[in-house]
Structure formats: structure tokens, C-alpha cells
Amino acid sequence: MAWCRLEPLGKAIYVGEGRPLKEVLFSYGVEFPCGGRGKCKACRVRVTGGVLPPVPDELRILSSEEIEQGWRLACRSLARGDCVLEIAQWESPILTDNRPFHFTPREGFGVAIDLGTTTVVAQLMDLATAQVHAVSTALNGQAVHGSDIMSRVQHALTPSGAKELRDVIRRGLGAMVAGFEAPAIADVVIVGNTVMHHLFCGINVEPLSHYPFEPVRDGLECFQPEELGWPRCGRVRFLPCLGGFVGSDILAGILATGLHESAERVALMDLGTNGEVVVGTRDRLYCASTAAGPAFEGGRIGAGMRAATGAISGVSFRGGALIPTVIGGGPARGVCGSGLVDAVACGLEAGLVQPNGRLKNGPLVLAPGIALQQSDIRELQLAKGAIAAGLDLLAARCGPAPDALSRIYLSGAFGNYVNRASARRIGLIDFPEEQVEPAGNTSLLGAKMALFRPDDDFEWLRRRVQHIMLNADPEFQDAYVSRMIFPSNGL
Fold first, then answer.
1. Model confidence at 124, in pLDDT bands (50, 70, 90)?
2. pLDDT higher than 90, residue 454
3. Where do the domains of the chain lie, and which CATH numbers do they carry?
């Protein structure tokens, strides 16, 4: 048995000799965006004392200078003796929701859960008053196998992967529910994207791994507590998905924003780990999932990270220099999605980034050791191009004047914190700021609203929403390429 002291946390943990550090460090803030495949190097830790010899994979992936400086990959390292590891503590705000809404009182308590790819939030509600009595947040324990949904899908296709991912999330959510102080919990409602829906419910994700990416089963799933090992609660419902990769989190978002009741043409955009768009009116809604990638959450960005302590969350251009704003106020450790959008918007205004995305004078330096490379700009172009093109095509499905949207709701953490002027400057959302409304955690709000509809399977809403496969639309590729270009000047 070896011990590892984790700094700056000041904690000592005991690790079995030869045990992979990947199995123990995730809960202390070390993330594995590529699922522990040794591709992204984002799980680096630094040995400042003791013994942690590099394994052959590390000698291949890391440079000799990095090895000499004590850097190791947590996804590859094996405990071989006592050591001191320098890790970064990921303190990340998770978006909750406490907005009031219309409801019909019920008896007892209920729990609403937003099961995200990266984070999870649960709220305990008094069903007689709709008051939130407690909140619990956590990282999704599945993230040790990758930060994006396709990494999870690939792991689920391994011999024991699907069961492993199912069990870890059921245990995690069960612990959150069990931690609430309530006499009894009558009802639990869970929402999440299609992959989270399948992994929790034990549904085969193989159809989601290849074209046409359509699930074989995506309706309402109900569980009794004994099936899940959750003894303190009653029925558990995972709300239905809308088609493809558009999950019940978006269905909940429609409920929360009232899109299904709007006489005017409106849109909902969820720009989290995935990118989903809904456009329409109370008569007809169109939805799609876009191949945006994880750039809006710092994924696939060389210096990227989630919106956590040490992340550059905003950038301004003053005195001929890019000035970063860092979460927590300390030294910058990386850049999150909102900081990425700000930096490129400032770069465009300063002439440091050209409309085609080329960097005019080399990398955009944001802070000591933190810079955006050409490949990072390309990732943002791909992400914003997919979202903007998807919005264009769905709006066009609604009839003439595709730009005639009265309001656009931005859901999720990125949508809540992104600078709308910067989003417009890069061409992500080509609408005046007053038409764009940060809508908070609409998934959680919609899940809470569903607690007060205990007999509703939401098929009436699913029939009103048409899922569009953008990759099958002959116009999408041209729109995608066109939307990748940044506007030449402010709109």
C-alpha cells in the first residue's frame, strides 16, 4: 500500500501498489477528457516528492523535458511508492434553478435531476408548495471514461463497459437522492441527453455509434426503487427523448421556456457538451443535434478547460493587449468556452484574427503559458458553424423569413455566461442582444415541472416536435461551410 499526498488540497490518500491512479484521482478533480486514452494530456499531474516512475506509454507521449520536470499522465501512471502529487482542484459552479412556475399541488416530496454529460444536479422539492428544500451537485462519475458522449458510447461497446457506465451513474444518483432529508420521496424525474438516457436505463447504445444515429428505444422509462437500489423513493421516471441525440433535457427545456405555447417563432439553443437547437411555434417545432463538438466547454482546445477555478472566462482588448478575467482571481490555468469566444471576438476587432480564421501574428497569448493556437480557432469555427447553420436550416423549415425569430433562449451554463456581444461578433448568434435571453438551467426547471404531471408520458409533445437529421439535409454542408467564416466586421 502506497500513500499519495495531493497538493494544494493537503490530502493524503492510500493507493494499492500497482493500482492505476486513474481509478482514484477523478474524485479529487483530475479529469480525463479523452477517456484515459493518452491522447489529450489534460490529466497531467506533477510529482514533487517521492516516487512515481514513468511507464513506457508516458515516455512515448510526454517529452523528456516534461518527464524531468516531474509531469506524469494520471491515465497511465501506476502507484509504485509514496509520493506527493501537485494537482489542480476543479471548483466548478454548476447551474441550478429556483425560478417559480405554475403547478398543481401534490402530496409528498419529489426529486428533479438534470443528468448532464459532465455534471449532475438534483433538487428536492415539496410537492405541495413547489419549494426547493435542498440541492445536490456532483460531477458525472462516467466522465473518467471521456468528457464527450461519443467517448462514453465507445466505452459502452467494450465487453463490460455498458454495465460499468450504468452502475456508476445509478450509484451516483442514488447517493444524491439518499442524501436528501425527507420522510419519503414519492417521485423522481430524470432528464438528460439520449446517451445519458440509454446508459442509465440499460438500453443498447450501439445504434448511436454509427449512421443514422437513431435510437431503437427513446420513450419514457419507469423504474421501481428496488430495480435501482434506491430504497427511500417511489417511482423513478426518465423522461423521453425527441430523436437522435436530442434528449429529454431538450424536451424539458421546451416545457421550461414555453416554446410549445408560443404564437411567435422562437428558438431554444443548448450549447453545452453537445449542441441542440429547437425552432418553431405552438403549431410545429423542429429540433436537431449539431456536430458542434465540445469547444464551448473547453474541449479539444489546447489550453481548454471547463468553467472552473483558474479558467479564463472573459477577455477584453485594452491598450493594445488582450486582458483576461480569471475565475477565482488567481493565476490562469486554461481557458473555458466563454473566454474562448471573447478572445476570438477581441482578436477579430483588433485584426489579430482574420475572417477566414487565420491568425495574423501567431498564437493569441491570453496569459503566461496560455495561448490560442491556429487549431483552437479552427475548433471554434467548426462548433459555431454547426450551431449557426443548424439554426438557419431549422428556421427555414418554419416558412418564409427564416430570420424572423422573436426570441432565442440560451440554455445551460455556457449559454448563461457567454458574452452575447462576443457571440454575435463571431457569428454564433446573428441577432440583436435584446432578442437573446439567457434562460438558465431549463433542463432542471422542466424536470421540476414534470414532477407535477405524474401521469404524463409526454407523447403529445413528442408528436409536435419533428426531429431533423442535419447530416441528411443536402443544404446543411454548404450552410455549415459558409457559417464557419467569421463576420468581417461588427454586425
1. very high
2. yes
3. 2-86 (3.10.20.30), 109-255+446-453 (3.30.420.480)
